[in-house]
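Progress note, sequence design subtask.
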């Protein structure tokens, strides 16, 4: 990966009540980054979830496909932005493959495994490399961390372990018990606090003019989408 030039990702102008960029030319680009980041957090997980449960090694090895694709796109000036984003996504895919493939029974190691790429991301950011991809990865990690915090605060960890010990067809009753656990003043209050925290961080990032902040915001905000879909599915299970 080569060092980025100062003009690689041009800043965008701001002109709105929330200071969110609205420049006709750059605004389109920033929303594309935001949309792509949101997509990479919320959609591939539904393909990886069954794959990693049935064929964890295939999921793990397929990380190389994402890395190769990311490098190929990154080395082309027309697609460098998207290669940058996919390289950041490859860290999320790698961590998900490792944890959900072999360690999913132990929630305590979930966040450390998901953070496997943090040293590399920090080093790249220190060197000024791959800002869009690394900010995407860190945004995704932040969303994961806040979700895990909610599980700990509301006492859902035992249900996590139970769900991982049974076949998917037998998980519905456990989900129902978990829903009862969070449908309390304590569970609802913390949900409101943490949802607003995610929204606040996302809106703060969207006020920035650089594209990597839009990738960060897309990753953080789409965590709400994934979590919401998960609990909706659990409710109707």
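Output:
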């Amino acid at each position: 990966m080569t060092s980025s030039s100062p003009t690689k990702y041009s800043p965008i102008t701001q002109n709105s009540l929330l200071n969110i960029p609205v420049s006709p030319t750059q605004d389109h680009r920033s929303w594309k980054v935001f949309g792509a980041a949101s997509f990479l957090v919320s959609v591939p997980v539904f393909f990886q979830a069954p794959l990693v449960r049935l064929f964890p090694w295939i999921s793990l090895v397929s990380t190389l496909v994402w890395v190769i694709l990311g490098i190929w796109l990154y080395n082309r000036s027309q697609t460098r932005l998207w290669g940058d984003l996919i390289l950041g996504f490859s860290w999320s895919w790698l961590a998900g493959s490792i944890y959900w493939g072999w360690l999913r029974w132990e929630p305590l190691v979930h966040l450390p495994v998901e953070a496997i790429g943090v040293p590399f991301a920090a080093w790249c950011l220190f060197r000024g490399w791959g800002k869009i991809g690394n900010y995407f990865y860190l945004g995704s990690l932040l969303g994961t961390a806040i979700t895990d915090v909610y599980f700990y605060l509301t006492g859902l960890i035992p249900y996590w372990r139970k769900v991982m010990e049974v076949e998917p067809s037998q998980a519905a009753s456990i989900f129902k018990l978990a829903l009862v656990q969070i449908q309390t003043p304590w569970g609802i209050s913390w949900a409101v606090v943490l949802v607003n925290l995610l929204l606040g961080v996302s809106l703060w990032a969207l006020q920035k003019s650089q594209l990597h902040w839009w990738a960060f915001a897309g990753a953080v905000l789409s965590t709400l989408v994934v979590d919401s879909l998960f609990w909706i599915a659990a409710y109707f299970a």
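The CA atoms of residues 39 and 222 lie 8 Å apart. Work on this subtask will continue into the next period as scheduled.
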